């Protein structure tokens, strides 16, 4: 079935639609237009109202936009791909699985990607707080994000070529590796486990604290002080560190450290080897 150049309104306008191609169509003034649908291909279309794709399966969208009131748009959905699209509303993607975004922007991405599984982002730009909270199995390549509390509680994450501005990013995470990226924001990575940064540049006041296993390979720490407090650390830093405070154990190697604070009443200084090159 093909639906072309339609202006559709009213609640559940195309409810329970299957095996359809939708082209040049606008959905307006009606909730849940494609709820419980499956096997859809949607091109050059616009969603202007709430809950467009709940409980849907096998959906491909290209050159398509979610705007204005199309918030909370994609919940409980499985197998969905956006390409060359714009998602300009908050709270998109909740409790959904097998999600792919390519060459897509999310300029109002507050509370987006919550409790989702198997997410693949390629050349994605987003803006908003609490992005990807409590989501699992995430692969990202080419990512620009501005917004606090990124990836809080996420697990099994791999990121390449990202530029991230985010206070309290990577909190409460587990099994994360970040390559060739720039991260700017206070209090990076607190309360996380098994986090690795490779060839990254980081600017973070009191970054990398309370971490159970933080590995840094060939990274730069700019404007980063009081770092590694109460963390188990293995770090090779290709720059000066402003200050290091009370790491629990491991190894820190840097080109310079402005201040080393080791409080013997709180930690055993002998459990961390600190080397200044």
Structural summary, described in words:
The chain has strands at 2-4, 7-8, 18-23, 26-27, 38-43, 46-47, 57-62, 65-66, 78-83, 86-87, 97-106, 117-127, 136-146, 155-165, 174-179, 182-184, 193-198, 201-203, 212-222, 232-245, 249-261, 272-276. It is an all-beta fold and 277 residues long. The chain starts with a strand and ends with a strand. The protein has 2 domains: 1-121, Single-stranded right-handed beta-helix, Pectin lyase-like (Pectate Lyase C-like), CATH 2.160.20; 129-277, no CATH class. It has a 6-stranded parallel barrel. It has a 5-stranded parallel beta sheet with strand order 2-4-6-8-10, with no helix packed on it.
Features:
single chain, 5-stranded parallel sheet, 22 strands, elongated
Mind telling me the C-alpha Rg? 22 Å
Number of strands: 22
The tally of structural domains comes to 2
Shape: elongated
Strand order of the largest sheet: 14-15-17-19-18-16
The helix/strand class is mainly beta
* Content of β-strand: over 45%
Query: Which sheet architecture does the biggest sheet show?
Result: 6 strands, parallel, barrel
Tell me the series of helices and strands, N- to C-terminal: EEEEEEEEEEEEEEEEEEEEEE
Share of helix among residues?
under 10%
Mean pLDDT: 97
Ends distance: 68 Å
Number of helices: 0
Low-confidence stretches: none
Give me a quick take on this structure:
The chain has 277 residues and is an all-beta fold. It has strands at 2-4, 7-8, 18-23, 26-27, 38-43, 46-47, 57-62, 65-66, 78-83, 86-87, 97-106, 117-127, 136-146, 155-165, 174-179, 182-184, 193-198, 201-203, 212-222, 232-245, 249-261, 272-276.
């Amino acid at each position: 079935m093909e639906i072309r150049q339609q202006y559709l309104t009213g609640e559940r306008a195309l409810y329970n639609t299957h095996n359809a191609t939708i082209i040049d169509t606008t959905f307006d003034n009606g909730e849940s237009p494609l709820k419980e649908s499956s096997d859809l291909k949607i091109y050059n279309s616009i969603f202007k109202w709430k809950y467009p794709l709940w409980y849907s399966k096998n959906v491909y969208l290209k050159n398509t936009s979610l705007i204005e009131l199309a918030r909370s748009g994609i919940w409980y959905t499985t197998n969905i791909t956006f390409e060359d699209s714009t998602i300009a509303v908050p709270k998109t993607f909740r409790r959904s699985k097998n999600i792919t975004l390519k060459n897509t922007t999310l300029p109002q991405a507050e509370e987006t990607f919550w409790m989702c599984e198997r997410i693949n982002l390629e050349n994605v730009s987003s803006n908003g707080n609490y992005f990807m909270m409590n989501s699992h199995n995430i692969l990202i390549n080419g990512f620009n994000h501005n917004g606090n509390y990124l990836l809080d509680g996420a697990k099994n994450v791999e990121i390449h070529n990202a530029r991230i501005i985010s206070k309290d990013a990577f909190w409460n995470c587990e099994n994360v590796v970040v390559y060739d990226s720039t991260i700017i924001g206070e209090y990076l990575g607190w309360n996380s486990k098994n986090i690795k940064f490779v060839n990254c540049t980081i600017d973070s006041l009191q970054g990398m604290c309370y971490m159970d296993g933080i590995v840094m390979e060939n990274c730069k720490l700019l404007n980063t002080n009081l770092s590694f407090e109460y963390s188990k650390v293995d770090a090779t830093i290709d720059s000066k560190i402003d200050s290091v405070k009370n790491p629990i154990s491991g190894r820190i190697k840097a080109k310079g450290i402005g201040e080393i604070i080791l409080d013997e009443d709180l930690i055993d200084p002998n459990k961390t080897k600190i080397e200044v090159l």
